[in-house]
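Lab meeting notes turned into a lecture example. A postdoc, R.K., suggested we walk through two folding results consecutively so the class can see how the record format repeats. The first protein's sequence and structure tokens come next.
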Amino acid sequence: MPIIDFHTHAFPDEIAGKAMAKLQEECIVKACLNGTLGALLKSMDQNGITKSVLCNIATKPEQFNPILKWSKKVRSDRIIPLPSIHPFDKEIKEHLKIIKEEGFIGIKMHPFYQNFSIDDENAFYIYESLIENDLLIVMHCGYDISFPEWDIASPQRIIRVINKFPELKFVTTHLGAWKQWDEVEKLIIGKKIYMEISFSFGWLPDEKIREFILKHPSDFILFGTDSPWADQGKEIENLKKLAFPEQLLNKILYINAETLLKIK
């Protein structure tokens, strides 16, 4: 059975050590991998993962080109990179057009590392350009473990964005919004909003995760791990322990991702 991990991270070998050391200082969770692409591929091999979506984050506008260059270098049948644009980039429209022309399916953004609120009107230009180029966006949603609990990516803000841009292919992370699950239950569960499930096991009771998934449209749930911050194999085990019907499990593990990523 294919498995697609819709949320992973890795860095070029020459900066992986430094990048992971800095991130590890900020994060109370110990990384499971060393942040290199080789380690990710080895983990995929060990756990039967067919493809991984590689999420990049531009923490400065000038990182667009290096991230794009690396994304072009590492993409393969198994690695599907998402380049990134910074919200303060003065060439967003041009850069999103380049991302489309280079054959990428979308981008990743992270409001905490990029210092913006997802429903800020200054971000609307980004969403409009994504729609124009038929690109998806994987957005970090909810709080972030390495930052104070700032309200910049909450379910209320997600709903404002989706209501204003109903054509936008917007993927929420961490079971809708990390550690804002009361609001997720009220505002997101049951709506046709893409939701990947990383970093929910161990933070929310299994029975609640199961309830959320069963109440959500089955075509809008994606498997993700946030590797290297979680063990891909354990996350697969955690999902399978919830004992979903085979059809639903297959949708979560690969069918929905194949549709969204336009994999034939």
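The second example is placed directly after the first for contrast:
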Amino acid sequence: MFNEMMRAEIWLQDTLESQRTIDDLAERLGYSSSQIRRRFRQCFGMSPSAYRESLRLEKAARLLVHTPHGIRDIATRCGYTNHSAFSRAFQRRFQQSPRHYRQSRRTSFRRLGITADGLAVKVRRLDEGAAVVARRYEADTGLASAENWEESLDGCRHVLPDALRDATAIVLLHDPTRDSRLPRLDSGVLVDPGAADSLAMPPELRLVELPSERCACVTVDDRVALDAAVTSLLAVGLPEMGEYYNGEAIRLVRSRTGRELQCPLVAVSR
């Protein structure tokens, strides 16, 4: 049952901006809507609708702090068709209006005295790709220590097909700002998009498409606290460069040449 509800949780994440309903999810999984609601609550402690709203608001919080987008635009990007409904839901979740939340979080960064010293940030466009990953739910998805990095990067090695055991490891950090009520990350390996469909994979693995996009890339090593590096990049490094984090999953990649953070950026207007 848990694997099925995990697929339901991932579907809710992937359809965040759409107006698709729980009935659509039930039809996709072959259950009734009431079965989906009951089983999802048993696994995750909340209803599917409450979980999706939480995801939407957490994404909105990231966009408010890290992008220049207007509040109405952010509401639309997060799946809200009514600006007033978005503001009320945000107030309930964070005990602040969207405008005050944006101001207070940005002010708190300045007061913390965070710097981008030691971060060598390069912006480059990553090619389209794919990854085979396993979803992990943890009370604390912090990756501050090198041991936690390696554990997360190798999180699904034991269930990978033999052909992928030596592939480049990747972790997708869905909530680097730690606002999530259900902390989660995806751990796996990079694969050739054309070859992935022919692989026999256990049910806990899935294929994720990685779009071609501009990313701020930072090489990190075991002397660096990863959480601090992410915070410095988002709070100082990108603003100093006139760039903005787009709120989607940040990648941590380990290859033969080292470990690299890849932070997706807001698209440049043409």
